[in-house]
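> forwarded from #structure-qc
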């Protein structure tokens, strides 16, 4: 998803845009605009070829590899991405970008901008990692770098490096060709908590942005458009308050908040059978009391309520509140709740996807080495999934303006959904990983600091940069993108954030975990002044497989 120059725009969706843009139930599906025609302009074709060649060159390939491996080694959870922020913004400032830190009230958030005037193109990708997913790269079986520590079991170490490489190539072309426009780069902070992008919208960070090109690690080089069968969600923590007492001496004088938590969970699990098939719901007890001999005065449980549309999300949330109320009545306790994150279901832009897909087919997949394929197949065999190796064919572009509700079954979520309903947006998936792990798992980190990731980032950066060139030099693409956004996607719909007026980013999350493991991780941060790759620094033979 990167190439010529654009402005990594974190001017995320304005607070104004945040409340006036998209959705509930469209009365009738609008006609889908015609496909964007391929360009025949030789200047644009040549410029795309030039930025792609720049990205494939040794300097930018190596920079992408270094950034990827460095962020992998930091292994920072959501809201704790301080080393990642310092490192990536330092690179961007050296390249002439203006950087603003602490954006939207989030200490690890930043926005980097370069250029001037229109169009304004924003590039986004996530940077946080997964608890207990520490894993040595290139090793096709469980082998943590630091046992119990966080790790990049979602591959979020790769997307922002991809965007930076693409932006630098485009920036050079813009300077050389005197092309106006602004490039904006922003990170998705705490995506695993769905904790920030609605706040980006509220803060007006994308006000004035013409298009958002988002990236997410995948197993192939693809994009899609239209409705998405995955879920949106609201993340809510319920806290019960009671009265402490000696658990043996005078338990009748206590009011157990933990009993309330357990009753709420029992009620939800009974109700689950009678919810729509589209729902996904899960919880963890974040506070279960202090010690067994004291009746717990306080206890908390954290829920994710997922559904495939906004109405369904709010309906589940309402049921959750009733469960909390009932549990409090049964235990003579009181309850409060706070929103820790949210995400609207995703809808991607047709015109942008068509332009991106044309560039994807031009770039093609990486040339995988025998070692790359061996690592993929050995990991797949280890995990007992189909042994298919790595992607070899790019699929056709797929999209559907609206997926019938009965065909949706729900799934994962990404708070890029809030942005997609505010500014024309697409997601580029790039082949920095392979099919094997179940997601949010150590196995999904195996490829993420290996040649597979380095090559996947590079082809993704080429496609990203070429699409940026299209948006800078082809007004017809941006017009078509806006037309789809206004007259199809958001027509008759209003975007209403799931976060409430008094909600604030939960920036305290993951502090204790990161503090616990950071000292051990720091000793193993990647040192590019001594080693070319993180594999080399860790002394790992690539690939390492069971014999």
């Amino acid at each position: 998803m990167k190439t010529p120059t654009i402005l990594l725009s974190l001017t995320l969706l304005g607070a104004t845009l945040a409340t006036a843009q998209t959705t509930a139930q469209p009365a009738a599906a609008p006609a889908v605009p015609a496909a964007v025609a391929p360009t025949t302009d030789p200047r644009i074709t040549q410029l795309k070829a030039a930025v792609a060649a720049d990205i494939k060159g040794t300097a930018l390939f190596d920079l992408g590899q270094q950034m990827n491996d460095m962020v992998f080694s930091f292994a920072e959870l959501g809201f704790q991405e301080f080393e990642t922020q310092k490192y990536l913004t330092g690179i961007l400032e050296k390249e002439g970008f203006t950087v603003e830190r602490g954006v939207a009230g989030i200490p690890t958030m930043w926005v980097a901008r370069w250029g001037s005037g229109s169009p304004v193109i924003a590039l986004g990708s996530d940077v946080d990692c997964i608890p207990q997913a520490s894993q040595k790269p290139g090793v096709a079986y469980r082998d943590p770098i630091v046992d119990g520590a966080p790790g990049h079991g979602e591959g979020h170490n790769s997307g922002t490096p991809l965007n930076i490489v693409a932006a630098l190539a485009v920036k050079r072309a813009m300077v050389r060709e005197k092309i106006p426009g602004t490039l904006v780069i922003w990170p998705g902070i705490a995506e695993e908590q769905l904790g920030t992008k609605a706040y980006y919208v509220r803060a007006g960070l994308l006000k004035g942005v013409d298009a958002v090109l988002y990236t997410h690690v995948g197993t192939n080089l693809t994009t899609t458009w239209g409705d998405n069968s995955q879920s949106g969600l609201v993340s809510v923590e319920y806290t019960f308050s009671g009265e402490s007492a000696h658990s043996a001496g005078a338990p009748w004088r206590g009011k157990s908040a933990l009993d309330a938590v357990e009753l709420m969970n029992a009620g939800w699990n009974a109700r689950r059978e009678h919810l729509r098939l589209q729902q996904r719901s899960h919880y963890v007890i974040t506070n279960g009391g202090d010690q067994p001999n004291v009746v717990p005065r306080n206890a908390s449980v954290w829920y994710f309520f997922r559904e495939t549309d906004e109405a369904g999300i709010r309906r589940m949330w309402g049921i959750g509140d009733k469960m909390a109320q009932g549990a409090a009545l049964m235990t003579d306790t009181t309850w409060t709740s706070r929103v820790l994150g949210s995400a609207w279901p995703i809808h991607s832009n047709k015109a942008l996807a068509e332009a991106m897909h044309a560039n994807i087919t031009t770039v093609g997949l990486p040339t995988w080495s025998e070692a790359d394929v061996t690592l993929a197949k050995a990991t797949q065999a280890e995990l007992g999934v189909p042994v298919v190796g790595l992607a070899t064919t790019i699929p056709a572009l797929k999209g559907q303006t609206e997926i019938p509700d009965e065909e949706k079954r729900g799934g994962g979520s990404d708070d890029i959904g809030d942005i997609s309903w505010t500014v024309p947006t697409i997601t580029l998936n790039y082949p920095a990983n392979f099919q094997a792990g179940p997601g949010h798992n150590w196995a999904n980190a195996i490829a993420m600091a290996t040649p597979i990731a380095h090559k996947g980032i590079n082809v993704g950066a080429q496609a990203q940069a070429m699409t940026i060139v299209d948006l800078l030099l082809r007004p017809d693409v941006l017009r078509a993108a806006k037309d789809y956004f206004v007259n199809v996607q958001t027509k008759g719909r209003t975007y209403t954030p799931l976060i409430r007026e008094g909600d604030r980013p939960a920036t305290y999350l993951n502090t204790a975990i990161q503090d616990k493991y950071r000292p051990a991780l720091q000793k193993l941060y990647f040192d590019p002044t001594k080693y070319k790759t993180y594999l080399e620094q860790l002394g790992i033979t690539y690939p390492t497989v069971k014999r």
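QC bot note: The two ends are 38 Å apart (CA to CA). The chain has a mean pLDDT of 94.
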